[in-house]
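Justification of computing resources. Each target in the renewal requires a structure prediction run like the one illustrated here; the chain below, 477 residues long, is used simply to show the kind of job we budget for.
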Amino acid sequence: MKQIKFFKHAGSRIPLKFKVWLYFVLFTIVVFTLLWLFQILFLEDFYERMRISTASKCMESIAESYNSGNEEEFYRKINTMSVDNDFCVEVLDKYGNQAKKNHVIGDCIIHERFTNLREFKDKIDESNSGIIKLRLKNPRSGYDMLLYGCTIGIKECDGYLLINAVLEPVGAAISIIKGQLMLITVILIVFAFVISLYLSKRIADPIDRITTSAEQLAKGDFNTKFDGRGYLEAKKLADTLTYAEKELSKVDTMQRDLIANVSHDLRTPLTMLKAYAEMIRDLSGDNPVKRNEHLEIIISETDRLALLVNDMLDLSKLESGKQKLSPSEFGIRGKLNEIIDRFEGLSEKNGYQIHFTPDEEKTVCCDPVKIEQVIYNLINNAINYTGKDKQVFVRQINQPDGVVVEVEDTGDGIEEDKIKLIFDKYYRSENHKREVVGTGLGLSIVKAVLKMHNYDYGVRSTLGKGSTFWFKISDIK
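Resulting structure tokens:
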């Protein structure tokens, strides 16, 4: 096991450039090994197999044309196949006498003077299948010869068909091929080594550059440049890493801002809690009116702390997928009225006016608790950012395929390039106002809940006139 681990670690330390070069070299060796095996060692066997197969198929084809009764086609096939394949073809009558003779180029044993054609006829008659396959040697040339024979005729034997094929020795051809192959092998191996070195460098260099840049990025350097020049895949990888770098840089900046803002939100109520607790201890402990006033402030700041912690926990659970939807049917108009009523105390105390434009009651099927949280956060966000007139407008718009809920403020609006960032969990508007109610994480929770429901959402904004946040409930009854 230790040896295996050693080789694995050793292999991981081998430079990519050398690995690519080695793979090219191994591929070249395998290709030439196969080439030598098939062109030198197996050439003679392959030639013989092909010659035997061709002779057998020709015999079957010629015999089939005779049995079909088409004499013209029969002799045409004899002439064509004998010339094309360098065969000798002999047709005998049922007594073993020559019926037709075809002279072709090549050494033909069945036409030699020492050949007794009736011997072949007798062997065909003696065979159970009416077919013979013989391997003979030509006494004159010494070449191996293949002799195929069969009967022709449908119901009874009308005659015999003999096909003779020469198995010419391929030793000389192999010697020529071997010499050429040796020369070609040497040239191509040298060429392959040079090409493999060039390609390995061309493939590995962009990856080496990207790896070096990625190591810098891992150390926190968000100004790293990724150079993917060389080939398309490396460029795509470099572009992807450049995009990831920009996103990581934005996330890092936004996370720092979030920590700063949350720290401020935590520090303020904690400071007030401590101050008023000390006041109760030192000053108002015996004064019921003052003590109750100070205790109310402590309770209020405690609630604010709890709200901040709960929002952070909710956002964390939503984004991690630990919270599941519990859909049920309810009337969206009634739910909007109920939520707006909760802001009545804030409206009376601070002068905010929330105008609701309802549509007909519509039954929807979704998670009521989470959708209520979305509506509450959107209204709270509008209160935080509305103009000096302190007007907020909520609208219910019924559509054939769903219900659109809009929440509009009359504030300064959002820059066009900031709209796409407004729902990001680490984003904080540069024109951020102190919250009247809430923690500043509301829109992040809105985004997470609506994505869980797979609902469309967005924002329309005009600088100097305000913004309208909207979402569409597509699950209706």
